[in-house]
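Help: read this over?
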Amino acid sequence: MEEVDNTVNFLGTAPDEISIRLEYEGIDEEFIVRFLKTIPTNDHSPLDFSSGNIATVGADAEYVFVSASSQDLRSIFSAVLDPLISSVPVRAEAVAMSQSAACDIPPLFICNPFEGTGINLQNAFDNGVLHGRIVKLRGKQNTTGAAMPGNFGYLQVDGSSSAAAIRDYFAGKKNPSCYDSDTVETKPGYATSIRFGYNVRFDIWEGPLKTETGSYSPAFNVRKGYDPGANICNNQELVSPYDANFMGFPDISPMGTPINGVSGSWIGTPSDYGTLTPGGAPAGSPTWDKWDINGYWSVNHAANLGELSNVTSSFTGLQPSRYDVYRHEIEEELSGGYTLVNNTSVGGEVGYPACSDPNSNPASQPAWDPSDPSAPAGTKDRRVIPLAIVDCLANPFNGQATVPVNSYASIFLVRPIEKLPSSTDDGTIDVEFIDITGYGGNGTLDTFIRAESILVR
């Protein structure tokens, strides 16, 4: 309250009091301010100002009550109604609450892959436990079972929530919905072939989006370990798993399944997160971050091997994450240094998108990087998306449901979604965590999280 310019203007009666300005000074004189834990459901019920309902710490303050008083009102109407009344007190009162919402994000949620391990996500992120740890998330299929750790699914959208609409939101169409910071409503079923929208971010154009290169655009850096081949835009092939000629960002060995998690979901190095201390810090020497950074660099940047030593980690004491390397490739190039994005791998792959010219579709989301000085305002990194994290074991659901939000996170898209052989399902969404909302985060999600004050009385 003291940091905000809180003022109220009342009209006075004398010429020199045409406007009476009240300023909050932290004392109960002209303003009365109380932070409340609860308010009655019925607006006609009086507020509870007992000591048990007055919040003394920020975490308990759900509502703020403000009362402002001015000079007594001298009115001819009061004199007519009762000649003994020459003035009446004037006081304005209101109750408001703060609410946050995530806007302009894909309609995506994931079940907390660490639920059941005793890991608090905010503590874990703050201690580097999520840094560089790859997570492979499995889609929630049309089954009767509840969503489980390691699943991903979709959120309801204002307007159409069809599979085609969800696909377009993943491709980059603006989502008209904002999602509450406390709860989200899930979408029933599983939108098949969502990979078509997701994969345009990697410059892969298939299915209904095969001819939409002018509508959406890939990221600035789409290196992924694919053999360019003759038909690079419509028939790209992953070199599996990796070899000496092509290498996207690799997994780490061993990979394990989430505790009580869904089959087909994987987390890098489960032996490490199983030995965390109760506060969320690693109990021993961490290894989850030790992915094959040297192999990746030698395959893709053979002409600039020494530059690897200049890649810095976003978490002190841990190896650079895949996202750290990805950002270094971009930023080094934009600063006029080595052209790392355009480096040719041993097998001939480069990081530049080959199927969409960023200058040909400025009205969509072009393949600019946000740190490029020439990038249009509002440009986003197309391999970074925000999503909601929910605790699916503590709040079991299947299909459409309203569930509490653990937090929101921004994730790095490590690789495209693969089409599984002889299956109608798509493969996993493979990600690294970049940031998370809450006390352990870095605050980079502020672009997507909108805070609003809402008047409730």
Summary: The chain has two domains: 7-89, 103-449. The longest helix spans residues 322-334. The chain has a mean pLDDT of 82.
